[in-house]
Structures are given as structure tokens and as C-alpha cells.
Amino acid sequence: MNLSYKPKYFQDIFLPELPIAETVNQEQPTKCSYIITDLSPGSSFSFRVSAVNRYGVGVPSQPSAYFKIPDAAPRKAPDTISNMFSSMGTLAFTWTELKPEDLTGDGVGYKVYWRKKSDSISDDRWQSDTVTGRTNSYVALVGEENFYLEYEVKVGAFNSLGNGPNTTVYIIMSAEALPAAAPRNVYGYGYNATAVTVFWNRLDNTRQFVRGKLRGFRINYWLAKDASVQRFSKVWCESCTTALVVGLLPNEGYWVNVQAFNAAGLGPKGENYYMITLLNAPLRYPEYVMTTSHSNNSVQVQWRGVYVGISGRTAGWLQAAMVASNRKRSHCA
User: Do 110 and 156 form a contact (C-beta atoms < 8 A)?
Assistant: First the structure.
């Protein structure tokens, strides 16, 4: 015999095949019965039955009328408490909300508990609050001095008939604060005509200085002759001490500084450092290449020189004549 039941507004639930011996009604031998357990309080169910033999499952009966299970206090605890982004001085967390069939009745809500994690066994004072309705998040005020500290958190559901079980204790970090330290000893040099390499000392990655989880560094830069337009480049790395800044103009002076950042935002800027990008490589090829006899085993190659850089100044001439037999290179101004 197969038994299926359908909670109102939800999908069918099937019980496995039931042996005949388990469905015998001792008080009314001509009828069969079975007790279904672990149904959700406050939910409505409809039932139907199918007969089974060795050839398969028969056609199910017509579904019964809906029957409402009496309301009761919640029997399950929420799942998976995790951090939620929030502002400094708060402890924000979220949890997996109970399904409607697990949180029924009137006056539903959640009770949240938190306390600062401590190694002291005697420190067991929980703070608590109540949030009504079907929700899955909470923000507690813990004070700006308690930034980025471990807190123990647990959550339990309730309705008008009582409280349900609490979750296990989860460790949640309070919100981060802006970094208090700036990268020091910033310096660098030109990498090529459109990029520079920037260096700085390793930042002391502690709660006192970073005031959260170090996410990376921001390199700010601007043209020395025009400070009105400032740009930046980010590197996402906790232990970085160098970065390559690209997209610059050739043979130009730039000021740079560096900031650390975490989830709360940017820390103070380090000192400014001046550097210059390199000249461009030649942008054109030599023209009017000519060859003449040089000796019985060599020729002389001549060509028109090229300009180096885009500034219009002659940075230097490449070789105007080369002996092909030994492939020497010389420069002339």
C-alpha cells in the first residue's frame, strides 16, 4: 500500500510502501489505518491511498479534504548564520529563514543573541533582542571601539505558542573601521614610456593599523603639470609592496601616493613621490636605404635617420651607416 499526502500550497510527499500488517485497524478489522508522524504544525494536509501488489501500484484514491494540524511552537532552528556588511560600530548578520511550514501560527519572529567572544568561562552574559515577522537579518550596536572583533551569535524562532530551539553558536566579526595606517617610503621608476613601477614598505597587517581585513592598495597618480585630474589604480592583495601603473603619457612627470583599503573604505594617504615616464621607442622606421660597394668583401648601407619620442625633440639619431661584414652599430647626433 502506498500513502501520499499533500500540504496545502506545497508539493506531494510520498511514503514508502507500507506492509499490510502495519495498516491493520484492530478496532475495525474491515478498515486500514496508519499514523503519520513528523507533520508540520499549523499546516493543512490532504491524503490519498494507492494499493500495491507484485504487478505494480494501483490508481490512487480521491484526495481527502484538507486537515489542519494544530499550531505549536517552532520545532526547527534557522540555518547558517553569516556576516553581513554594515557600518562601523555594528554587528550585522544574516541567517537562512525558516520555511513557512516550519514557522506557522500567529506572532512569528526570531530572537537573536550575541556576546563578545571571550576565553573566560565566567563571561556568559548574552545580549538579546526580538525581531518580529519573517525576516533573516539583524544589526546590533556594539560601539565604534569594538570594530572587527569576534562575537558569538545564535538565533531561534518563536510564535505565539512559544520559542523554538536556537542554532548552534556561530562566530561573526563586527564591522570593520577605516585603516589607520598609510603605506610608507613610497618610491618608483619608469617602467616604459606609458607605465611606472611603484614600491612601498610592507604594511603592518594588524587590527590596530588595518582595523579590519586588508583587501589591497590604491595607487593615486596625477600629472605634475596638471593636478586637477587625479586617477587611481587598485591592487587586490594583502601582502603587496609593488604595483605597475599603466596608461600614462611618455616622458612626463607624475606624482603618486598609496592608500590601504579594507571593506570599510580607504585609509590615509602616504607621502607623495615624483617620477618620470620613459621616452617612447622609435615610432617610424628608417627610410631611403641605399647600399654602395665598400670593399671586396663588404658593402656600405646608408639610410635616413628617425626621430625618437613624440615630443618633437631629437632625442638622438640611430646609426646612419653600418659595415655589414661585422654588423657594428654607432650613433651620431
Answer: yes
Using DSSP's 3-state secondary structure scheme, residue 183 falls into coil
**C-alpha atoms less than 13 angstroms from C-alpha of 30 in its C-beta half-sphere:** 0
Per-residue CA distances from 199 to 188, 257, 272 (Å): 6, 10, 12
Give 48-65 pLDDT, tens digit per residue: 888 888 888 888 888 888
**Residue 36 C-alpha from the chain's centroid:** 44
CA quadruple 295, 299, 303, 307: dihedral sign? negative
Q: CA nearest 280: which of 254, 317, 310, 313? A: 310
For 239, the 3-state DSSP assignment is coil
Task: Give the Å distances, CA to CA, from 270 to 184, 195, 199, 327.
Answer: 6, 20, 12, 50
Q: How far is CA 154 from the centre of its chain?
A: 23
Count other C-beta atoms under 10 Å from residue 327's C-beta: 7
Residue range 152-182, pLDDT digits in tens:
999 999 999 999 999 999 999 999 999 999 9
d(CA 251, CA 166): 66
With cell 507533520, the residue in question is: 39
Residue 152: strand pairing partners: 115, 171
The three-state secondary structure class of 277 is: coil
78 phi/psi in degrees, rounded to 5: -60, 165
d(CA 90, CA 142): 5
What's the pTM? 0.72
Rounded to 5, what percent of the chain is helix, strand, coil? Answer: 5, 45, 55
